[in-house]
Design the sequence.
């Protein structure tokens, strides 16, 4: 018997796959370095409910949520509370800082007829579909919208 090694797998498909992945990574890197920014998703439907919100840092670790129009305090989160709300705002404020946008602009919360809830950063135009984060996290922001009175739809 002779000792021969049979090649079970041809290296050609793996070389093609590796080359394709390398080109994709290089293409994405080049786009990022050139300053390309993917367009933000804009809700296609008209909002049924809209509330303009301001978020204020208060005593150490406290965040106050206010209605911009009425200056009504909607919610107060003490230290360790409202983690999803805090994380979402932190990400949006970081995006503002990266883009050199105003930190003083408000946020718009919209509920659409298809039950989608969006948080829109008025400084950058970025819209976040809150439903993508699950029902508990969506409910954290939905609580900021006024509940419709009896006979007002929904």
Sequence:
């Amino acid at each position: 018997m002779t000792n021969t090694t049979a090649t079970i797998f041809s290296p050609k498909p793996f070389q093609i796959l590796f080359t394709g992945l390398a080109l994709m990574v290089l293409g994405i890197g080049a786009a990022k370095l050139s300053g390309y920014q993917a367009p933000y998703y804009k809700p296609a439907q008209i909002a049924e409910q809209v509330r303009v919100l301001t978020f204020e840092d208060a005593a150490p670790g406290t965040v106050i949520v206010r209605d911009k129009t009425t200056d009504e305090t909607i919610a107060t989160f003490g230290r360790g509370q409202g983690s999803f709300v805090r994380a979402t705002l932190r990400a949006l404020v970081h995006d503002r800082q990266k883009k050199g946008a105003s930190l003083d602009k408000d946020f718009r919360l919209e509920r659409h007829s298809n039950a989608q809830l969006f948080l829109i950063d008025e400084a950058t135009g970025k819209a976040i579909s809150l439903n993508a984060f699950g029902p508990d996290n969506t409910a954290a922001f939905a609580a900021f919208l006024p509940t419709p009175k009896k006979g007002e739809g929904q």
Observations:
- The first helix runs from residue 11 to 33.
- The mean pLDDT is 84.
- The helical segments are 11-33, 83-99, 135-142.
- Strands lie at 47-57, 63-67, 73-77, 107-112, 117-121, 127-129.
